[in-house]
Amino acid sequence: KKDKQLILVDGGDQELYSGAQISSIIDTMGVMKYNSVVLGNHEFMYGKSEIDKYIKQLNKYKIPLLGANIY
Q: Can you count the helices (H) and strands (E) in the chain?
């Protein structure tokens, strides 16, 4: 049963050092029906190409990505 008053948000800092590991994490987020994900500082450690892969995986489950103070 889905609780309409519950919002499930990931706070970031997944450390994208392992594609297989982050893929498993995002698969779990998809199954759990996360409402959104926030980028943390560790998501920027390995460059834009890794962030692009992360976003592509999030899009697979239609999980919105939130960001603030990013330039």
A: 2, 3
